[in-house]
Structures are given as structure tokens and as C-alpha cells.
Request: fold
Amino acid sequence: MQQLVAARVNDCAIKLANVNGTGSASANSLLMESIFKMGIPVSGKNLFPSNIQGLPTWYEIRANKSGYTARAIDYDLMVAMNAQTYEADIQEVRSGGYVMFDSTWPLDEVLLRPDISLLGIPFAAMCNENFAGARQRILLKNIAYTGALVAVLNIDFELVGDLLTEKFAGKEKLRTANQVALRLGYDYAREHFACPLPFHLEKMAAAADRILIDGNTAAALGCVFAGATVAAWYPITPATSVMDAFKRFCERYRRDPVTGENKYLIVQAEDELASIGMVIGASWSGARAFTSTAGPGISLMNELLGLAYYAEIPAVVFDIQRTGPSTGMPTRTQQGDILECAYASHGDTKHILLFPANPTECFEFAVTAFDLAEHFQTPVMVLSDLDIGMNDWVVPELKWDDSYRPDRGRVLTVEELEQIETFYRYVGEGDEHIAPRTLPGVHPKGAFFTRGSGHNALGAYTETPDEYQEVVDRLVLKHEAAAHHIPSPIVERRAGATIGVITVGSCDLAVREALDLMAHPSAGEPAIVTDFMRIRGFPFGQEVRAFLDEHEVCFVVEQNRDGQLRSLLILETLTPKSKLRSVRAYGGFPLSASQVTDDIREQLGR
Amino acid sequence: MPAIATGANAANRDLIYIGVSGDGDSLSIGLGHLCHAIRRNLRMVYLIENNGVYGLTKGQFSAAADIGSTAKRGEANLLAPIDPIALGLTLGATFLARGFSGDKTQLVPILKAAIAHRGLALVDVISPCVTFNDHEGSTKSYLYTRQHELKATEADFVPLADEITAVIPPTGTTTVTMHSGDTVQFRRVPDGYDPTDRERVVEYLLERQGQGEVVTGLLYVDESVRDMHELNETSKTPLVNLPYEDLCPGSDELAKLLKRFR
Reply:
């Protein structure tokens, strides 16, 4: 076979094209996990449809020894298992790349490309011959192609076998069938092709502290460690797995081994209006409470987010962003809720937002979110997305500091209430303008009427302009004070850079890679040296403003159509509009470096 | 309202929760939340101050308005009413009562029993709107209610402590012992009526309402159903009172857990 690509070790991108509902997901994550266990930096992106069975689904694996694991859109190898999408899939392979396909049926000649190599393996025939039952044959085809990939990519066969054994522990029949299928694909590939391919994998000295985790699981774990006891939610992709994970962790850590009593309560609500209402009710009572949702849920929660803002009640909301507006594309990623969350609800409102970029930050920011919500007595929204939330990421092991204690904010104790004459709810204190609150049932002196209607600093109903304004003006000062508590941006400066690149959330890896590519371009292209800033929260702090001031031009890279982060920067800082240029990718798939470099180069004309 | 009450109750099960709402909220914009609070058997008293109109916005019909009932300006309501008691019966409500704001004698024991009830106690209180719905042609006016009210049951609430100290013998036909040990003693119920028999209650109410009567009293009670916390097996200590040290698994547990993610 002709070998058209240069030999590369631990640097390749593979795409697997499957039919949804055929069991490919577990085979694909098995592959990804195997590569992770070989110590190689790797990412797996599941590009799946909003459908239970039948529509096309893809899985992309990128292994890269230097740690560039953002989505790559130049595929070295396509595993084309879906006849519906053959034609388009084959076009996506880079010149000199390979296509692995099921050769049980001949591949239509019109699909052939002269610049790629074909790896035909009769997966269907193989499985029909060795296994009984239509369902099993379909499922095991996935394991057979996994076996073939193990051979052509030089993945550790034993390691994959061990993972299968672990996975099917106690299910002997299934385990055996899977091992047989793995071997079938593996042997066929070894027999018929020059294995491994010029690009392949080799074990690396693994960084000892790496784990493989998705953002939603990490966020749920953060909620457990933060001491959240009440959670309310309404099922929605891609946020559902936050609550699934929270439930699992609570069953493990929050069930009294003696009494069987649960130290948590999760309510599956009737809608998102109810779920945010429950969070507000529980937080009002003094519990740490949260909900997880996606954009459509945030839309429904708007009204009550306004209540929590105005009545000054903590609430933590995880928004695992997906592609909007309306139902949009529920299984595709986007960063389209930035403006909606920043100003959620009618009237003048401004909220605290946190922007995690990876599962580590989902874990850490979960804790930060509860501290901020209670400290500032206001909703805090954590804006993750489908890419972070549902895909597995390789990240450093999560760490916990046992000396951490929650910041419960200014809550008056029984002793404090005993000593004051009369409690007035909305009198701000000090530089942060936070008004001490009381919890229900603690002391009769702490009783007050919580109202979403116009109120004055004393907590009484008002329709008087000055009294109304006194309260809402304090809320602005309180929000500004929060800027000092928001995680500071990640800033990286490079010698000689005049251009700044600003980004947020899951764009992180792709943007970093893009900046490296522009600084060290391939022959013929001019180098472009840029500074980097990843914003991690709103309101914006001094460091964000300083970065904007320092640069003549900044590109704002984000995943939405309207450049929402750019708009928020323009609205909330004094930066002139002309200074901020926009780089946007919003088709629903995770960002890749080449999208960023192409756009910036084009805008700069070099 | 019930969503916020659900959260508050979830966090602190030791407090008594009393929710007051109107028919406008409860039977329209907040109907879904009422239904699900009933389904969860959230321990609270849910009071509907039911006047059949939206008063603050000047007299539009609510979903409680009867067909043919007229507004102050004369137009007649054409849509079928939502009856919170009938609704509660279909949703598995565990405490249903209807009172009349003009009859404190009847309402007070109902409210006492509602507070003692383990679960959601729905009390529909016909509360005529003296500004927008107290005219001739309205079926939620004082006059209409007085003329058509049928006090189906008469009950006394006897707190456990009183019963022990005074040893009040059961005076009525039916006694329902609350989960708390308190009792509701029915002085009078219609022939063959059993306030713990859902099917019989449904039958009776449909029959009387068919006759144009406004049936009041403690109409249905079921103390056998577990409330939200009992269903969840929540800690007896309110969640809000659990110390943080009891909630955070700590770094050693994290390290142990993360072995599975390696």
C-alpha cells in the first residue's frame, strides 16, 4: 500500500462516522480511554444528533503529544461506518489519509479519492459469521473496528482487553463475545495491512496526576464538596448529566450508613420555572441549592432570576450551553447564552457569571459559585457548554483543600439579632454594600416580608422614587464589588505582541493552539505574535480592563453568531467598539485552531 | 409560590409552611406548580382565596368562574371552571377542604387541621371580591354563596394535648386521627359519606355540584400518604442545620474516587 503521509508518532486525528443508537458510543470511548491510559494527551468529541436512533453521529479523537487536543478538522483516518454519510465523510479526510470501511459491500466507485488509502474490512460478514442475533452483530461490529484500529494505530491490545474485562465484569458471555470481536478486527488488520500506519501511537510517560472526566461530572462533584444539599432540575440536554452525577455522588457520600437518611434532596421539577423557584426557596432558607439547565431553561427562569436579584436571595445555576435560539440544536455546543445570563430578567438586572473552560474549572467554579451567591446574596450562573459538559477531557487530578469552609455571607445570628433593636432587611454595609440577611425560623426579630415588589431600604413596600432608587442603586454597587471576587482572567503575554486575543470557556485550547500556530507558522506565512486573555467571569475586573487598554486591537474569539462576549465588553467597559474585532464560530461543533487562525489572518490581511 | 415553598421546605422541614394564593394564580399561571406540589405531598397549607376574578387588573374572569357567571360589566363567562377540589381528588391530594370567608366558625378548625396534616392541605376559601365580583349574576358573591352553600361536613379539630388532658369523647360520626396524633372529629357528615373514601367523595361532590350547590367543609383527608421528605428519606435534622463537615467528603475521599477516573 502506498504511504502518502509522513511518519508521525502520537500526533493524529481520527474521525468515526456511525449511525446513532448502534452502540458505537461505548466502543469509541473505549478507544479514547485506551489512548488516555497509554499516557498520550487525547480528546474525544462526540458529535451526536438529537435523536434516539437512526441519524448520523460522529466521534473524533485527537491524540497529540504536545497537548494540542482541541478539535482537529484535518483527519488522518476516517472510520466510515455509516453509508448515509460516506460521501461527505470521505471528503473530510486529509490528502494522504486513510479510510477504514466495511468491505462486506463494495464501496461505490464515485466515492473513491485517488489521494487517500482505503482499509476495507468485512466487519458485517465477520460478525454475521461469528455471532448470533441481529442486535449483537450490530453492537459487536463496533468492537471489531476498535480491534482493527488497535492494530493500525498501535494501541496497546492488552490494555484494551483489560478495559473490556473491567467493563463486562460479571457478564461473562458478553465479555467473551467482545474479546472475540476485538480479536477479529485486530487479526484481520494485522494480516491485510502494513501495521501500524505511518502515523500511530506509542506509550508515553504519563503525567501521573491526569484524570479523564467530563465537565458535568466535575461540576456535580464540586456541588457535593461545596456542601449543596438541595437540587432542583428539569431534564434537558446537555445538562441532565450534572444531576445524574450529583445523585450518584449523593448516594455515595450523603446517605447515613446507620439510619439510611439522606443528607440531600433532589427534586425533578415540573418545569424550569419550578426548579429555579425551588432553588430560591431553599437558598432563602439557608441551604446551598442549585439547578442545572441549558438555554431554554434560562429563558424560562428569567422572571424568578429577577426576583432573586431584587429580593437578594442566593441561587446557583449551571447553564450547560447548547445551540439556540429556541429548541435550536440540542446536542450541539455554543456559547450563546452570555448576554441572556448577564442581564437575565426584565427590569435592570446584572448577574454574576462564571465561565469555566474545562472540567477542572467546572469543579472549582461550582464551589466559587456558592461562595459568591451567598456572599453577595444574588444568583450566580456558571456558563459551561456541551463540549465541556458532555465530552471526556484529560485534566490534572482534581484537588481539594480540607481547610475550605463555605462563605455563608452576612447572615445575622441569634446573638446579633438579640442585640439589635429592629431588623431592617435592605440596609447595605461597608464597601461591598451587602445588606445582612436573616434566615426563617431563627429568631422572631429576624422576621421580614421578602418581596419582589418595590421596597425601600427598610424592606417595606414602596412606590416612592427615591426609596426605590436607593435600593436598586445599591444593587449596582454590590455587583461592581463582586468584580474583586471573580476568578481573574488567564493572561499570557508574549514579547513583541501588539495584538490581544480574548476568549472564553471551551474556546481555550483551540485559541491557544491557534496563537502558537500563528507565532510559529509553517514556511511562507508571516508570524503573528499575540497576547492572550481568557475571561473567567463577569463583572469584569481590573485585569480585564487593563488588557483591553494595553492593546491597540483585540480579537474576541467566541462561539456564537452575535459576538456576545464582545458586546458585553463594549457595554461594561470603556473600550471603543472599533478596537474589538470578532472571531466567531457557531455551527455547533467545538472550535478548532484553524478556524481561528484563518479568520484572524484574513482580517489582518496577512 | 408552591415551587418556592417546596425549596424552603426541602431545606428546613421543621418549619410550618402556609402558602396563600388566589384563584388567578393557582388555577391559571401557577396551575402546573399547584398540581405538582400536590403530587409531591409537600407538607404545607395551600390556601386559595378564591373570588373568581382578577381584581387588581379590574375584574377579568379567573379560571374559577362558573359558566354563565357574569362580570361586573355584564358579560357572561363561557368557559368551564377549574374546581380545585375536584382537581385535587384526581391528583391524589391528601387533604381537601372548602370554606367561606364569611364563616369563621367553620374555617378555623379546618385551618387547624390543615396545619396538623402531614402533606399538602389544600383549602379553597370562597372569598368574594367586594369590588369586582359581589354583584347579582356572580356565582362568587356573598349572597350567592350564602344561598347555595351546602355545609357537607362539620368538624372539630382536637389537638392531641387537649384530648389527653380533657379526654373529650368522640362526638361525631367519624374521627380521623392525624399523623401528628391530633384528631379531626366530624360532628356531621352526609349519610354514607366517608371523608377518607376518595371515590365516595368524588361521587358526592359531582352530585351536589350538579345541583348548583357550593359544597363546603373538610371534604377529604388521607393521613396514610408519606410527604415529600418521607418519600425522599431526608435526614430528620433539617438540611439547613447539617454542619458542613457532615456534607463534604474531604480530600481523601476525592483521591479515592478519582482513581476510577485515571
Q: What stands out?
A: The CA atoms of residues 491 and 533 of chain A lie 4 Å apart. The mean pLDDT of chain A is 96.
